[in-house]
Amino acid sequence: MLIGYARVSTMDQNPALQMDALRDIGCERIFVEKASGSHRDRPQLKAALDYLREGDTLAVWKLSRLARSLTQVIKTASDIAERGIALKVLTQNIDTSTSEGRLFFHMTAAFDEFQRELIVENTRAGLKAAAKRGRRGGRPKAMNEQNIKHAEAMLKDTENYPFIGDVIDQLKIGRTAFYKYFPTDRIKQLRPDHSDAHKA
Fold first, then answer.
1. Which of 35, 57, 74, 120 is the most exposed place for a label (fewest CB within 10 A)?
2. Element (DSSP H or E) covering residue 75
3. Residue 135 pLDDT greater than 60, yes or no
4. For the domain bounded by 2-97+107-116, which CATH number is listed?
5. Domains of the chain by residue range
6. Element holding 19 (H helix, E strand)
7. Contact indicator for 160, 195 with CB cutoff of 8 Å
8. Is 168 exposed, middle or buried (0-12, 13-18, 19+ CB in 10 A)?
9. Which residues are the active-site ones (predicted)?
10. What is the SS3 assignment for 27-73?
């Protein structure tokens, strides 16, 4: 008897594609799971394994639907093999009822694991490189050269910008950032005769 097992990673995904493929090969019963492959608690897979009997075949659409690690896949396949149950994987043409199929199963499972590890390594390398570039570049500057010149002009123009707060408002930056570029001594140089230099 052919027994199908379908799994999607989230509640939003639709298992219809897998179920149609499993029905097409003649599965008499299909167990459907909505959980990630790394999730250990998969009641529908357990139910499918409990339902299987010697001489049956467990069919899945793809190896990754059965489990997400090489260890899990091989353990599941070995456990059902000891019970006289075969594994059939539709998209990867695996059928462990034959010696060739068993060999191909182990090769495919190992390759899938390698691909997953490669993706993880590449992702980590990309994040590391991005973080390194971020540290090298640092945060974008609050003021560029043009802004600084504009600020200097406003600071000198005490008639139109009598208070420091007026200048800061025009620049649209925070006070901390402003005083980083224009400390007290610098402000006094730009507007030496203005007693209200530090009023908001």
1. 120
2. helix 70-82
3. no
4. 3.40.50.1390
5. 2-97+107-116, 145-190
6. helix 16-24
7. no
8. buried
9. 9 (o-(5'-phospho-dna)-serine intermediate)
10. CCEEEEEECCCCCCCCHHHHHHHHHCCCCCEEEECCHHHHCCCHHHH
